[in-house]
UniProtKB/TrEMBL annotation:
Residue span, ABC transmembrane type-1 domain: 41-229
Record carries keyword Cytoplasm: no
A GO biological-process term: transmembrane transport
Main location: membrane
CDD domains, A to Z: TM_PBP2 (cd06261)
Name recorded for this polypeptide: Sugar ABC transporter permease
Native source organism of the sequence: Cohnella abietis
Membrane-topology descriptor: Multi-pass membrane protein
Residues that span the membrane, as ranges: 37-64, 76-97, 109-130, 151-173, 208-229
Gene3D superfamilies noted in UniProt: MetI-like (1.10.3720.10)
Domain of life: Bacteria
PANTHER family documented for this protein: ABC TRANSPORTER PERMEASE PROTEIN MG189-RELATED-RELATED, SN-GLYCEROL-3-PHOSPHATE TRANSPORT SYSTEM PERMEASE PROTEIN UGPE
UniProtKB keywords: Cell membrane, Membrane, Transmembrane, Transmembrane helix, Transport
């Protein structure tokens, strides 16, 4: 994909494909940058960063409540949230679309953001990690006069940075790569995210060099993120799975 994005469009449809290292050109990227790619990229960044922040803030609060607080229906509510993790996204897509439509939010940033601000997986990971925080630490904070908010902000958040980093990274990647919901929730060309915009480039008279350049552009942030935070990805696969 990366190799063909720097070659003429005809190179990608040759049989066999041209995998040589010669004949490089920047024409595909010049055409890509002259289009709506900047608008689509900014939309994807807004959605992905907002989803990441929502997951980190709201889900960590929920995880703290489930891990360290006692309230009626706590166990039932937690397992209800966990059960959502086992529910296919496609099952709730139609009622979610109807709800957003009835609220008059279709084709707006609110339509893209509201369904992604809280993730059941992020709540589960936060709760599992925060259960390991010693209760004595919280009792000491309360004895020193810390309010509930200050205990959360000054004790829970710093101690939970490993899991919050995982939640943030997974949240960003999930929303950056999302295709189906942005496709349903947006109509105008200027509201499309990068994934939907890239797909629209393939509807007619496909310019394969341009499409492959767009795919390379879309992939680059995720590769950089993975290289920079690889240890958090590995830790995210095992967090909460082993006690002790």
């Amino acid at each position: 994909m990366v190799l063909q994005s720097f070659k003429p469009p005809t190179s990608a449809i040759q049989t066999p494909p041209d995998l040589s290292w010669g004949g490089f050109t920047l024409d595909n990227f010049k055409k890509l940058l002259d289009g709506n790619i900047w608008v689509w990229t900014s939309n994807s960044l807004i959605v992905a960063i907002s989803g990441m922040l929502g997951n980190v803030i709201l889900c960590s609060m929920a995880g703290y409540a489930f891990a360290k607080k006692q309230f009626p229906g706590k166990r039932i509510l937690f397992w209800a949230i966990v059960s959502i993790m086992m529910t296919s996204t496609q099952i709730i897509m139609v009622p979610l679309f109807m709800q957003i439509r009835d609220m008059g939010l279709l084709n707006t940033y609110w339509a893209l953001l509201l369904p992604i601000l809280v993730s059941p997986l992020a709540v589960f990971l936060s709760k599992q990690f925060m259960q390991t925080i010693p209760e004595d630490l919280l009792e000491a904070a309360r004895m020193d006069g810390c309010s509930e908010w200050r205990t959360y902000w000054n004790i829970i958040v710093p101690v939970s940075m490993p899991v919050l980093a995982i939640v943030g990274i997974f949240g960003f990647i999930t929303q950056w790569n999302d295709f189906l919901w942005p496709l349903l929730a947006t109509e105008s060309r200027n509201m499309r995210t990068l994934q939907v915009g890239l797909a629209s480039m393939q509807l007619q008279n496909v310019d394969y060099g341009l499409v492959l350049a767009g795919a390379t552009w879309t992939m680059a942030p995720i590769v950089i993120l993975f290289v920079a935070f690889q240890r958090f990805f590995v830790k995210g696969l095992t967090i909460g799975a082993v006690k002790g």
